[in-house]
Amino acid sequence: MDLNADLGEGFGIWRLGDDHALLDLVTSANVACGFHAGDASTMRRVCATAAERGVAVGAQVGYRDLAGFGRRHIAYAFAELRDEVTYQLGALDGFCRLFRTQVRYLKPHGALYHAAARDESQAAALVAAVSEYDHELPLLCSAGSVLAQLAAGAGLRVVAEGFADRGYLPNGQLVPRTSPGALVTDPEQVAARAVRMATDRTVVAVDGTVIPCPVESICLHGDTPGAVRCAELVRVALIDAGVTPAPFAT
């Protein structure tokens, strides 16, 4: 089972999360590409450390929205979004190549992630950018989403992910961050949820409903309180359950 985390989300002198510690624990790093967070020096630093530790680097592409951390919806035209995703992919891939590695997958961030799950135009822009840049590049997204369907239809590899530190609604969608139960911050609970996803392929929703959650990768948000402790417990719990942490893309 792959463990991924959102990393490189600082900007300039501001740091968000402990990238260095998390890169010792995760198997894939979703690296911010400078639009919703991150900058050139941050990208270089995270790519260097990821390459050194054998962690797969993925491009976490987002809206051009540093002030809103990419969590505000933007109504992009298809071509503009396609080109801005390509721009972000190329920027991160350039830093990867300095350290004899490359971008291994793409994952949308924040509001773009949620928009592409239901908006055909924005999902199609992501699919077009990946198809043109590198048709072998997997897309990390929610199973059954519009993005997953369009990507599969275009012949791209789709990797479904689950969120051990986010609450789920009974319909399988994430609890909005503005609502109670959006975040799961108890490290023991996060670890138990991760094991359940990896072994039973299910997750317990906020109302107690057990819902299907067939995933190949489990996400741990780098900006969640106690993220490093959560990652430590998740990794140990998975190994204890007989699940080997390993990147889905090599």
Q: From N to C, what is the helix and strand string?
A: EHEHEHEHHEHEHEEEH
CATH topology: TIM Barrel
The helix/strand class is alpha/beta
**What general outline do the C-alpha atoms trace?**
globular
Count of discrete structural domains: 1
Report the average pLDDT across residues: 96
Under the CATH scheme, the architecture is Alpha-Beta Barrel
Q: What level of helicity do the residues show?
A: 25-40%
N- to C-terminal distance? 13 Å
What portion of the residues fall into strands of 2 or more residues?
Answer: 15-25%
Note the total helix count: 8
Taking all Cα atoms into account, the compactness measure Rg is: 17 Å
Major sheet summary line: 7 strands, parallel
The overall strand count is: 9
CATH class: Alpha Beta
In CATH, the homologous superfamily goes by the name Glycoside hydrolase/deacetylase
- Uncertain segments of ≥5 residues (pLDDT<50)? none
Output the strand order for the largest sheet. Answer: 4-3-2-1-9-6-5
SSE layout:
Elements: E1 2-7, H1 19-22, E2 28-32, H2 40-53, E3 56-61, H3 78-98, E4 103-108, H4 110-116, H5 120-133, E5 139-141, H6 146-153, E6 158-163, H7 187-199, E7 202-204, E8 210-212, E9 217-220, H8 227-240
Parallel strand pairs: 1-2, 1-9, 2-3, 3-4, 5-6, 6-9
Antiparallel strand pairs: 7-8
Description:
With 250 residues, this protein is of the alpha/beta class. The protein has one domain (2-240): Glycoside hydrolase/deacetylase (TIM Barrel). The protein has 8 helices and 9 strands. It has helices spanning 19-22, 40-53, 78-98, 110-116, 120-133, 146-153, 187-199, 227-240, and strands at residues 2-7, 28-32, 56-61, 103-108, 139-141, 158-163, 202-204, 210-212, 217-220. It has a 7-stranded parallel sheet with strand order 4-3-2-1-9-6-5. A two-stranded antiparallel ribbon has the order 7-8. Strand 2, helix 2 (40-53) and strand 3 (56-61) form a beta-alpha-beta unit. Helix 2 (40-53) packs across helix 3 (78-98) and helix 5 (120-133) crosses helix 6. It is globular and about 40 Å long. The mean pLDDT is 96. It holds the Pfam family LamB_YcsF. InterPro entries: Glyco_hydro/deAcase_b/a-brl (IPR011330), LamB/YcsF/PxpA-like (IPR005501). This is LamB/YcsF family protein.
